[in-house]
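Category: protein sequence paired with discrete backbone structure
Discipline: computational structural biology
Format: plain text, a pair of labelled lines
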Amino acid sequence: MVIELMNSLMNRGAMIIILAFLLSKSSLFKRLVLKKDVTLIEKIAMGILFGIFGIIGTYSGIPVNGAIANSRVIGVFVGGWLGGPVVGILSGIIAGGHRWAIDIGGFTAVACAISTIVEGAIGGYGSRMFKDLKTSWVGALIMGAAAEIIQMIIILVVAKPFPDALNLVELIWFPMVFVNAVGISIFIAMTQNIFIEHERIGAAQAHLALKIANETLPVLRKGFHKDSIKRTAEIIYEMTNVAAVAITDTDHILAHIGEGSDHHLTGSPILTQITKDVIDSGAYRVARTPEEIDCNGKECKLLSAVIVPLFDRDRVAGTLKLYKADKLGITSTDIQLALGLAQLFSTQIEISKLEYQNKLLAKAELKALQAQINPHFLFNALNTIASFIRTKPEEARALIIHLSDYFRQSLQFTSGDIDLMREIKNIESYLALERARFGEKLKIIYEIPENITCVIPSLILQPVVENAVKHGIFNKVEGGTVIIRASDNKDYVELVVEDDGIGMDHSKLQCLFREEGNTNHIGLMNVNKRLKTKYGAEYGLNIGSQVGIGTKVTMKIPKEKQ
């Protein structure tokens, strides 16, 4: 009899498992299972759903000695295991209340109603107590068996007369404990596959997002402008299976690649209401039908889309839109991809703006430096030329040409790199004017190989030479020599400006790059900062100096990798 009952229960329980399998494939069930913060309404919906499973378990049961051997516990326990105490107790009330209502006054009606609610609560609180077992079929098997044993105890305590209850429990306890525990574990194993599939899809999407980021970030690093945005949209389109990709600002379409590009025109204003809603709310939206997309093109094949906002700090700066060519084509995978890409692009928008601001700041600092230095130099140069006009007119003429060349170079400052020899020519013009003032007191030696190839930031070497002349040589009574040297190494070009002037002690050398109150060496500070910003911290100026011996300033310019 026990074996026959077990076979029958297994056959009836198989129907519950089939329904469970079909349920596990539904997107609604997957969303409820995967959600971390389930609302009360969603918990009530889950309670009703699993309560119905319990009712099905009752109707598929087998009459035994005035009672029903059944699989009701599978739906109720699993509901609590996945949804928590509220779901478990609610589904238990529904299924247990139904069991009592169809057999009011029955031998085990009250006991089965109570045990069903208790088993739902065990499932709910059990998953809370043993969180590590929530997706474990082994944990569900053990806890399910324990819940069924408790049901047998409740039947023995509540059902009357006791001898009949004892005979019933002796007959059904093993088949129900075994079959229902196994059924619960199979149900949970199916649910576990949802988590595994979600993690697999998440990992695949993360990998795809990183690949796209690897391709797009170098493009966006150049700035968030028309060409970079178009290329970014092209990369996303090429690397995904979407029908089209669009990027907008808050008013216009900046790029549209793929299906519909004949009427979703770049530069045209945003017309679709759903995109405007995303911009206004700052929350993503999914259009699952053409009506929600609301495209004016009659032949448009874009039937669904996900629209996510792009942020510039806390402000919506635009949107990223991924389109599909089939209704309901946007999946949770597409949504997660779009959200991940939007976050990456939003961060890059902020970074590109910060980089642009830093460039402007550096340029402003250099202009301020030029404004501080040039007037003094100009007055001195003009006074020198004025003294030469009557006595040495040819030299005066040559000095005017040098002055013109020097200021032309200074005023035509470019934030890009220039050839080393162009910088040397500017330095020659400057030194010619200074030598005219101080005569043989200033000697210059150039050690620049003719075949050297080197590009350097504009006005990076001239301030170092000027510092050597002003603070090294001119403060020395007998004057001195400045050597300008360049040497070609494997990975970098080394530039050296060395003088045999008055030098400086260790304490002054240590304070050289401190900005507080340091106005004598603003040129060196600026050069050091620009070198580090452009090439890295290890490429700052290297300065060595001894009092009475002189100063040596070295900089390394890394070569571009071929």
Observations:
- The chain has a mean pLDDT of 82.
- The longest helix spans residues 332-391.
- The CA atoms of residues 79 and 88 lie 5 Å apart.
- The chain is about 60% helix and 15% strand.
